[in-house]
Specification:
This protein is mainly beta and about 120 residues long. Helix content is about 0%, strand content about 50%. Strands 2, 4, 5, 6, 9, 10 and 11 form a seven-stranded mixed β-sheet that branches. A four-stranded antiparallel β-sheet has the order 1-3-8-7, with no helix packed on it. A hairpin with an 8-residue loop joins strand 9 and strand 10.
Length: about 120
């Protein structure tokens, strides 16, 4: 199983980004793909998660600014982020797991998002 993220970068406050996550290999047994982030000196935290049936959960701290979606034909999950703030600066990780409430079993390598003027 392989999980690959892309789409991070440097963006000014108020800007937008689209992060993509592709999962490859024997992934049919996994029901949920999620985005976490980890800022320097902080623990990794859940941002958003989506199940195979399309149900989603976006954490309250970013609700209204972050949106998660999936394209099953391409086996990718995207995180669209709007109105970025400096506090959103972190490494964003994609995770593959069994459910929305379980810790991911596989992780990508992470993609850096830096929000700065």
């Amino acid at each position: 199983v392989e999980v690959l993220e892309s789409g991070g970068g440097l963006v000014q406050p108020g800007g937008s980004l689209r992060l993509s996550c592709a999962a490859r290999g024997s992934i049919s047994r996994f029901n949920a793909m999620s985005w976490y982030r980890q800022a320097p000196g902080k623990q990794r935290e859940l941002v958003a998660v989506i199940s195979r049936d399309g149900s989603t959960n976006v954490v309250n701290s970013v609700k209204g600014r972050f949106a998660i979606s999936r394209d099953d034909a391409k086996n990718i999950v995207e995180l669209q982020v709007y109105r970025l703030e400096p506090e959103d600066t972190a490494v964003y990780y994609c995770g593959l797991g069994y459910s929305q409430t379980s810790w991911p079993v596989y992780w990508g390598q992470g993609t850096q998002v830096t929000v700065s003027s």
